[in-house]
Amino acid sequence: MNQHTRPVVISCGEPAGIGPEVAARAWAALAGEVPMVWLGDPAHLPADTPFRVIKNTDQAALLAPDLLPVIARDFGSPRVAGTADPAHAQHVIDMIALGVSMVRDGAASAICTAPIHKKALKDGANFPYPGHTEYLAALAGVDDDVVMMLASDQLRVVPATIHIALDQVAVQLTPVSLRQVIEITHAGLRDRFGIAAPRLAIAGLNPHAGEGGTMGQQEIVWITPLIEQMKTEGFDLAGPLPADTMFHAAARTQYDAAIAMYHDQALIPIKTLDFDQGVNVTLGLPFIRTSPDHGTAFDIAGKGIANPTSMICAIRMAYEMAQSA
Fold it and tell me: 35: cis peptide before it, omega within 30°?
């Protein structure tokens, strides 16, 4: 298979959540446009999903277009929508690892991961990672050298710190860590999105980017010097900029991605601009990984009302990234 025919593999995620539902609906929307293979227990798919079990991704291209190709694993018990089964936890983890190995072996072009439930994995399999990203980094052997990008047609944004308390942001954010985020984002835009000379906008940490030191010193002490130094190294950077003026329509035309300093500074604008179409992209991995920008949604699982738009966008983006690689 060449790069254009290798499928995107979709790991099943938490069976009790909306992952199987949105994956099936995404396949129905993208069939004929994006080759894909679902990894999991086919008994967990919606009952009306037409599928065919295959042994390897080569067989996917031989199926009729109205059949979802599935590489099947027996999870041992049915899916109960809204209630995680601890017995499923290790299988969920194994499907992620299988998908990664298939991409790295050349059997697939990219992996799109359906949402997992961290507590269910910890309770059922002593999962030691905070989430998908850290596990994928461990599988790839790149440790912490990855960043989370949220992307849509309207905005790409990267939080320099993620799931930490607000009072820890100024402690954990350092010149070394911010430089690493900028470098990984720059390389990801170049290598994964085909942007030859990425333009990055860097948010300030404090209100009004510190306003000359009256609202904080980090911008003066080290953020501005770091940006100026990296500009001399050839990086196209702007900032530090007041975060409250970075995300309106005219401002967004001036950069290819924004670097925010903490979780909400990054996620509020993209979820406001494009709540249903945001995609989680992990940059810094030696393979392509995307995910829908939502969770397991136990409260609506099994009701047939889950919106598949983010999953559709995530699968399509993974495939498009593979074509430009």
Answer: no
**CB under 8 Å to 66, separation ≥6 — which residues?**
31, 50
DSSP 78-130: ---TTS--GGGHHHHHHHHHHHHHHHHTTS-SEEEEPP--HHHHHHHH---SS
Residue 5 · residue 18 · CB < 8 Å: no
Q: State how far the Cα of 112 lies from the Cα of 39, in Å rounded to an integer.
A: 10
Distance CA 155, CA 258 (A): 8
Summarize pLDDT for 53-85 with one digit per residue, the tens. 999 999 998 888 889 999 999 999 999 999 999
Helix (H, G, I), strand (E, B) or coil at 62: helix
Q: What is the DSSP letter of 171?
A: H
Report residue 139: phi and psi, to 5°: -60, -35
| Cα–Cα distance measured from residue 170 to residue 192, given in angstroms and rounded to the nearest whole number | 30
167's tokens: 């009072």
Task: Give pLDDT tens digits for 102-141.
Answer: 999 999 999 999 999 999 999 999 999 888 888 999 999 9
Going 87 to 90 to 95 to 96, the CA torsion angle's sign is positive
| Virtual torsion, Cα 43, 303, 150, 1, nearest 10 deg | 30
The encoded tokens of residue 166 equal 């607000």
pTM metric for this prediction: 0.92
Tell me, letter by letter, the H, E, C secondary structure of 185-254: HHHHHHHHCCCCCCEEEEECCCHHHHHHHCCCCHHHHHHHHHHHHHHHCCCEEEEEECHHHCCCHHHHCC
Beta strands across the sheet bearing 279-283 = 51-53, 68-72, 36-40, 8-11, 110-113, 289-292, 279-283, 147-151, 156-159, 257-260, 199-203, 236-241
Cα 266 to Cα 157: distance, rounded to the nearest angstrom: 6
Phi then psi for residue 41, to 5 deg, are -90, 115
